[in-house]
Amino acid sequence: MIRISSPLKKEILKKLKAGDEVYLSGIIYTARDAAHKRFSDILKKGKKLPLDLKSACIYYSGPTPARPGRPIGSCGPTTSSRMDSFTPALIRSGLLGMIGKGVRSDEVKRYIRKYGCVYFLAPGGLGALAATKVRAAKMLLFKDLGPEAVYRLEVEDFPLIVGIDSKGIDIYSSLTIGRTKRNFAKRR
Question: CA 119 to CA 77: how far, in whole Å?
């Protein structure tokens, strides 16, 4: 496992390769569809975002309420492609890391490559386990969105896989190419 911290650093991200397993510690922010839409509306009006995304990492998650004695409830990833139309503007605003599940659009991959970002995969179905890696949680923005509000999470050894590295290499494409080659070889 590779240990990294947030705020993210481009020189560290450049060393990561698609498929690498990492432990992330530091500060990440949750934001789902509704929060992304609000960010987009703010940027379209030419205004400054209410959250500094420079070197930040956004986790596509909507945490459940915390149980007594815990900082947060279950916080598994949501499908990242739902944020694809909003992502380029956030990357231009300084965002360096995204955490979610599933594939990303070609446009998002181009932005990841152009700006040296990384897309991390969080294991789906393990939201309760992910919550054990959260040391502190605070609601920051858009309280009216409930679980889709923006939360600031302090995480320690949050387990992730590099889904798309800073060179734009996509683990899903790599797996598909590898399977196709193996299947072709079997047919010969």
Answer: 13
The values of phi and psi at residue 5, to 5°, are -135, 160
Compute CA 41 distance to the chain's CA centroid, rounded to the nearest angstrom: 21
Q: What percent of the chain has pLDDT over 90?
A: 82
d(CA 38, CA 41): 5
Amino acid letter, residue 18: A
The count of structural domains within the chain is 1
Print the domain residue range for 9.
2-187
Look at the pTM and tell me if it is higher than 0.85: yes
The catalytic residue positions are 36
Q: Which helix (H) or strand (E) holds 66?
A: none
DSSP assignment of 129-166, as one string? HHHTTEEEEEEEE-GGGGGGSEEEEEEEEEEEEEEE-T
pLDDT at 187 over 70: no
CATH number of the domain encompassing residue 163: 3.20.130.10
Query: Do the Cβ atoms of 87 and 77 come closer than 8 Å?
Result: no
pLDDT in tens, 119-156: 999 987 788 889 999 999 999 999 999 989 999 999 99
